[in-house]
């Protein structure tokens, strides 16, 4: 599974960015984004995604690998 930030729920508060131990979350001009190449979902150390745990609006969630792979094939 891969993590994504739901732009409709994201308040752009920035609380998720410093929680990421892999620096996979960054801010663009319009929104916060998770780089799937860097995101490990914190499985190796914490057992759960830290960004998802601290998000006050439940704006971060997982998507199935098949959808993630389809997006990568379309957008690189």
Automatic annotation (TrEMBL):
Pfam families for the chain: Fer4 (PF00037)
> What are the alphabetically sorted keywords of the record?
Iron, Iron-sulfur, Metal-binding
Q: Where is the signal peptide?
A: none
Q: Which domain of life is it from?
A: Bacteria
The entry lists its GO molecular-function terms as: iron-sulfur cluster binding; metal ion binding
Enumerate the InterPro entries for this protein. 4Fe4S_Fe-S-bd, 4Fe4S_Fe_S_CS
Where is each 4Fe-4S ferredoxin-type domain found?
1-30
Q: What is this protein called?
A: 4Fe-4S binding protein
Organism, by scientific name, is Methylobacter tundripaludum
């Amino acid at each position: 599974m891969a993590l994504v930030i739901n732009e409709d729920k994201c308040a752009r508060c920035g609380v998720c960015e410093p929680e990421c131990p892999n620096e996979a979350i960054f801010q663009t001009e319009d929104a916060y984004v998770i780089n799937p190449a860097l995101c490990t979902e914190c499985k190796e150390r914490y057992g759960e995604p830290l960004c998802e745990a601290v998000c006050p609006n439940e704006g971060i969630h997982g998507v199935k690998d098949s959808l993630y792979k389809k997006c990568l094939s379309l957008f690189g």
